[in-house]
Design goal:
single chain; about 60% helix; 2 helices; mainly alpha
């Protein structure tokens, strides 16, 4: 069962600011991106979110079992297929 937490107005504002920054970066950067490239960027972000979520779930389950004591760490370039 996945835990859901309510998004407060402040948190939603923070998320909207982040979305605005990402959008501005894609639209007004030195390199003008096509719509396909923008979708690729968003897919990579989603892949990173999914990978982070998986690592967090594995860490939580290992903590319940008492097999691991350290915080989860992201492994850069883990080679996971994000397609």
């Amino acid at each position: 069962m996945e835990e859901r937490m309510e998004i407060t107005p402040y948190r939603m504002g923070t998320l909207m600011n982040l979305a605005n920054k990402v959008t501005k970066q894609m639209l007004s950067g030195a390199w003008h991106l096509t719509y396909d490239e923008m979708e690729a960027v968003l897919s990579l972000i989603q892949c990173g979110i999914n990978e982070s979520r998986e690592m967090n779930e594995k860490w939580k389950s290992s903590m319940k079992e008492g097999t691991e004591r350290s915080e989860p760490r992201a492994v850069e370039g883990s080679g996971k297929d994000c397609s």
